[in-house]
Amino acid sequence: MDSPQYQELGLVSQEQQPIDQETVRATWKFLAGLSSNLTLVGFLVMPLAFEGAKDDSLGDKTGTAVAALALIGNAYLLSLILFCAQYRKRTYLIHSVFLPCLFSNLLGLLNVVLNILCRKLLPIGRLETVGMVFASIFAVLYALCALWAYGRGIADEIRVDDADRTMIPLTEEEMQRQQLLRLLQENQGKKKSSAKVMQKTFRPTWIIMRRDDGDVFTNTRPLWHPPGARGIYGGAAIAQSLAAAMRTVPSEFAVHSMHCYFVLAGDSEIPILYHVERVRDGRSFITRTVQARQRGRPIFTTTLSFSRANSGGKKKLEHATSMPDVTLPDDSSADVKRRLYNAGGGPFESHKLGTVNRDSSKPEDKRIRRCMRARGNISEAGGHHAHLSALAYVTDSYFIGTVSRVHDIPRFASPAELKAVLNALKNPSDLDDDEISRAFKELKEEEAAELRRRLEGALSKAEDPKNKHKHKEVGMMVSLDHSIYFHNPWAFRADEWMVTEMESPWAGEGRGLVLQNIWSKDGTLIATCTQEGVVRLKQDEPPRSKI
């Protein structure tokens, strides 16, 4: 049943409430336990019919024997039903059906044998023979089934069918082993620049394993690790978590909010397993949680909410912040083409639109604007889900860095870094990275001169002893959480220009908060994002004692 507030708003639909998935799982577990227990009880009851009978006639023990056989027969029938209904969940069948029933049959067989030996019922009568045959045959069958399920799980290769997204049941260890082998093979080939590795991660191939505790997804290619960062690019985890969650909801539902927490730094060389939990399936809203894990530890977690399309009714309240009056890049312009070419081969193209209130003494009044889009055309095969994932990917770009930018703290703030950039600007051919070298070479003469003047001015201030106590340098910048509110999930394409505006309303206590609005090409507000992160400055060293 939907929450009371939805009923009061008149959003209750007449369609039937879907069965809660947790209830279904609990029911299957109950039936599996019942099957095992009925088997054991049946074999415990059967020896009671042996009492005082050494001949082959059933006599007075007929009722007891029939009851025992009825219990055992019902248990086997339940096992057959569970096997047919849960055929694809081999891990579930092994641990909930095959192994418990195997042990129950072995205990039943042992119980029958001990009763025969202790009560000296030799030679064995019909009933004793039936008990031993039942227990032996089904113990062997359950053992063979368990070995079959285990063997199939190990033997299956990780494969992906883009047409029907085939679901392959594999263990986490096997998935990680296969991924590591693939990463090693790729690393043996020609070394690719970080930008090209980043480009590959945008088109992930999802490998799905359905288990008793939910759906598990994994990336198939290495994720981008930005230079100098503690771990992988956060936008990749956000986008892939969203893609995993969207695979578990009906097509008529679209994501409207996503709340993320960055727990640990991700390793680009280790595959990430995205565990999706189906928290709630309502008529109007669906809730999912996704936990990204490496080496068995969570590195990222998010909760997502999906709403049914057009569930708000015909009458509704509407308003939205207008897109700033900006000029989008002209793709036919030679200058725009040159800038985009210099940006490298990453998955997104970015173009600066300037800073509002740049000269203001109040950092909270500044607004940083730029436009971004996916490089090239997004394939239609991925549907609109691909555009939503692309949008989620880009929301983490240039985000927490807004805090330092509105304080006019340059990215390269230390004297050593400023000198390195100045040297690269004067001698771009000395750079190892071809794309950065090309970007410096292609700068216009007046642009290069202006950049040199700014860097030299910043360097002189940084090296001036009088300004030492005033010099600010970022020592640590890490995202803590990230929220996205999708306002019009069907009203944009991520491979068209999207305008973003960022601001920082607050910073303090070693943290900073950033807000971001994103508009589509036609001015529709498509998303609002918030992010808080650690932003700490390098502290002055305390004076050393002369003693």
TrEMBL record:
Residues 222-306 form the Acyl-CoA thioesterase-like N-terminal HotDog domain. Residues 354-535 form the Acyl-CoA thioesterase-like C-terminal domain. The chain crosses the membrane at residues 30-50, 62-85, 97-117, 129-150. InterPro entries: ACOT8-like_C, Acyl-CoA_hotdog, Acyl_CoA_thio, HotDog_dom_sf, TesB_ACOT8-like_N. The keyword S-adenosyl-L-methionine does not apply. One of its GO terms (biological process) is acyl-CoA metabolic process. Keywords: Hydrolase, Membrane, Transmembrane, Transmembrane helix. Pfam families: 4HBT_3, 4HBT_3C. One of its GO terms (molecular function) is fatty acyl-CoA hydrolase activity. GO terms for cellular component: peroxisomal matrix. Belongs to the C/M/P thioester hydrolase family. This is Acyl-CoA thioesterase II.
